Amino acid sequence: NGSSILLCESDEKNELQKTAESLLLFIDIDLLSGADILHSAKANYTVTAPVYPDQKTISIKSTVTGDTSVYTWYCRKSLFSLLLFGIVIFGFNYLFFTWAFPSMSRFNPGLYAGSFILAVMNILFSWTLFFNLLGSNIAEISDSSFSFRQKIFGYSLNRRTFNRDDIGMISCGFTSDENKITIFTRRGMDIYSELKIFAAMNKLNNKSALMELFPKVMELRNNIIEIDGTTLYYYEKLYLENEWSRILKLKNVRGAL
To answer: Domains in the chain: how many in total?
Structure first.
């Protein structure tokens, strides 16, 4: 299906080629060494375009304005998760005002500290609840850039923008979470490859080795956009992957790289 898999690692090119050639007896694959094709698969596999439901039946709204394609979908969670979240907010307030508040003296510093913490929690929880009810995700692809943002009450949040020419790949499930769609820059792909090689060559329970990883991990975070597709059905995420890959002329990869 076009996905890559690591079967063998070695510093010896001949050893790698020998291992790869042994696989040709069992699976029909192309064998490449750098840009050189050492063996071509015998079968001629045809690529069929995916078929999606009618645009009116999916929750993603797509529009084209000038040279910009815009994709919008809501952040709404399930009714059960919203109800559960509301119960948590109510529970904290109920316990504080019926149990903790009456038992404390108004001269007790803990009363004011608890009230402040509860107020902050109420603000954060209520904001999250409203965002899950009314917020939306917006991805925009223009001739020069790819951008993603979340929007609520007319305000844009968490906006990330990459130069269109810098984008190298789209991967669903990069973090082992099938609900995440990850956009990689070409530099991000290189960093991730470096991290895989580093992890294979070092013991990750070594403290000094882990400290060396942190700068690379932080750099990787600056070279990816993680898009939350929790509210989308599988075929809707697949639609976005293929649609964006087609427009950006990229390959899309499912699962961890």
So the answer is: 3
Q: What is the DSSP letter of 45?
A: P
Q: pLDDT per residue over 33-73, tens digit each?
A: 665 677 777 766 565 666 666 777 788 888 888 889 999 98
Say how far apart CA 229 and CA 181 lie, in whole Å: 7
Q: Can you give the residue range of the structural domain that contains 190?
A: 53-74+138-254
The tokens describing 129, both together, are 């609840």
Radius of gyration for the alpha carbons in the chain, expressed in angstroms and rounded: 25
Structure tokens at 183: 């956009």
Instruction: Summarize the confidence of residues 212-216 as an average pLDDT.
Output: 80
The predicted structure's pLDDT at residue 154: 80
Q: How far apart are CA 170 and CA 172, in angstroms?
A: 7
Residues 59 and 172 in one domain: yes
Nearest residue to 150 via CA among 65, 230, 75 = 75
